[in-house]
Amino acid sequence: MSHLAHHPNLIAGQWRDGPGVRADINPSDTTDVVGYYSTADAEQAGEAVAAVAAAAPGWAATPGAARGEILDRAGTELLGRSAELGEQLAREEGKTLPEAVAEVARAGQLLKFHAGQALRNAGEHLDSVRPGVEVTVTREPVGVVSIITPWNFPIAIPAWKIAPALAYGNTVVFKPAESVPASAWALVDALHRAGLPPGVLNLVMGRGRDIGDILTGSPEVGAISLTGSVSTGERVLRAATRRRARVQLEMGGKNPLIIADDADLDLAVEVALHGSYGSTGQRCTASSRLVVADRLHDEFVDKLWTRLEKWQVGDARAEGTDMGPVVDAQQLAQDLHYIEIARKEGAQLLGGEQLERERPGYYLQPALLVGTGNDDTVNREEIFGPVASVIRVADYDEAVSVANDTEFGLTAGIVTRSLARAGDFRRRSTAGMVMVNVPTAGVDFHVPFGGRGASSYGPREQGTAAREFFTATKTSYIAAGVPD
Fold it and tell me: Residue 122 belongs to what domain range?
């Protein structure tokens, strides 16, 4: 199917054109069309929900080993095609080619990990407090799950939601971000060809305003997993709560990275550089607040900016590119808007200029905002671009206080030589994930992912923690029959 000029939706096991079509545009070269992808409407989304509901009993009854074999086959395919699909991902989303290839490989690893989990859905067998009675605790599928994903990790985030949903026996209706359909389509295509029965996984592409209410409000949908903005998450939560559906939300972040006064300065610069500006800063785990001890502040800023000045911003697929473009015109405008706000609020701006390259694209020089306070707009609201601000603090205690002073709580980091200080920060941080001497962005696929506060809602994603959301607990009491 991947050779078709127009890529249809997948509903009830059939590839079907939608009522509309959208061009997938390369942000490194806006004259380049990656492909054309069907867009669904409310009627087609409703048909997809009906299809997953019809397929749910059969898939739930399918042995875990059979479910795992399908996930494993698809995972093997993604790993084998990581170079090809990585180039497509870099072309449609704008992250550098090495980052894109690594993301495809991670998607493959996620599928294969959860292929194993399909056989590890263990329960418990316990004695009752009553004689002659036994108790079993088992895990069963939730049923129909709606999965809605963002544009910044267009194959990894869908994989880390879809894989456990399918592994534990749920059926899925999946809507990817409308601006990056190609990677999501390739993932669904691989799973479809790996042997999923019709209706188990349905793909509906298009705008949230057209189909979102069907995917989140239909009574057949028992659970919704969304990664997106805080405002979208709140709308989904309100809609789902009214009918008592399960909800799992991953939303924004305003993640701090503390540079303690005992930090190795070269290491601190490397950690900040890749945590703040890797993937063009378009990560919910990016280090957007650099909280720097007064003693190291000036030298840290000088060294970090020296590195940033040398970064090559260009076509995501070009050799030697350190940072690709931002994803689209809307995101570029948002980044520039926040940079201007920071300047008006008194920040010193290093970089942050819109760039022109040989071909038209959404290029932005990395921006470093110096002299900011934690109450500044850029330190309270998520920007989601290659923009980081520096906050000077007097000592470690002030740094921890500043780090925790946010409505978000996804990830937080510290660079320090002190084992005692590292342990203290791990305990005092109010974030869901804590990083010591490594970037705040970058997590393993086999451990829980998620935050606190405005960043996350519901059970954790990834690893064995995914079972908490995608299964329901059943407790059964069994007594021996009374003889006649």
Answer: 6-251+455-475
Q: What is the pLDDT of residues 386-426, one digit of tens each?
A: 999 999 999 999 999 999 999 999 999 999 999 999 999 99
Residues of the chain with pLDDT under 70: 1-5, 481-484
234 counts as catalytic: no
Q: Annotated catalytic residue: which of 92, 103, 270, 284?
A: 284
Residue 281 in domain = yes
Instruction: Supply the pLDDT for residue 483.
Output: 53
Q: Which among 362, 283, 354, 281 is positioned nearest to 315, based on CA atoms?
A: 362
Residues 205 and 260 in one domain: no
Token pair 């003693």 in the structure block, residue: 295
How far, in whole angstroms, is CA 174 from its chain's centroid?
Answer: 14
| Residue 417 backbone dihedrals phi, psi, to 5 degrees | -90, -10
- Of the candidates 408, 454, 442, the residue with the CA atom closest to the CA atom of residue 254: 408
CA–CA gap between residue 247 and residue 142 (Å, rounded): 12
Q: What is the predicted pLDDT for the residue at 153?
A: 97
Among 250, 270, 382, 461, the one annotated catalytic: 250
Burial class (CB in 10 A: 0-12, 13-18, 19+), 379: buried
Inside any domain, residue 481: no
Q: What is the distance between the alpha carbons of residues 167 and 73, in angstroms, rounded to a whole number?
A: 13
CATH of the domain at 352: 3.40.309.10
Q: Tell me, yes or no, if 77 is annotated catalytic.
A: no
User: Is 199 within the bounds of a domain?
Assistant: yes
CA distance 390 to 373: 8
130 phi, psi to nearest 5 deg: -105, 135
* 132-143: pLDDT as tens digits: 999 999 999 999
Cα end-to-end span (Å), the chain? 64
Tell me the C-alpha distance between 105 and 232, whole Å. Answer: 29
